[in-house]
Design a protein that fits this description.
- The protein is α+β, with helices and mostly antiparallel strands.
- The chain has one domain: Bifunctional nuclease domain (Roll), CATH 3.10.690.10.
- Helices cover 34% and strands 34% of the residues.
- The chain has an 8-stranded mixed beta sheet, sandwiched between helices.
- A hairpin with a 2-residue loop joins β6 and β7.
- α2 crosses α3.
- The two termini are 31 Å apart.
- InterPro entries: BFN_sf, Bi_nuclease_dom.
Amino acid sequence: MSTQAPQSPVHAPDEVEMQIRGLMMDPITNMPIIVLKDIASDTVLPIWVGIFEANAIALELEKTATPRPMTHDLMRNMARNLNAEVRKVVVSELRDDTFYAVVWLEQAGETVAMDARPSDAIALALRWDCPIYVNRDVLENSRQTSTGAQSINADEMRRWLENLNDDEMGRYKM
């Protein structure tokens, strides 16, 4: 879904700039986790993703060249050839335990917001070297979700992730 948006792709006050802290396997579910960390604090946001999306992110993090363009490389190349530029990505919503994201593009002076999965948005952000943001409400809602009675393990995992050193994080290894 693509929508014209009057809002500028500049950093909004309700967005927190994040960086990728790590990419690892969840020891319980054996699913990949992207760990985003607030650049100004120790707040982390784990996002579980599919294996193919995690691989696309890992390839870019490790600057591994592939003989043919992968899907996210193709998307970057298409945007470039259409004179568009990805300005930022935002993990914008958490609804029913599912994260949502928006990719903000500019083309010919127009701003376009495109709905995306966070894993795809992050893979594109890495290829464009553009900032990754998370809406403050998403951070708050993810904390509230993790403090619920059924999710005590999620809160423990968040604390564990916040305290991992670089060796423990695995340097983007899966």
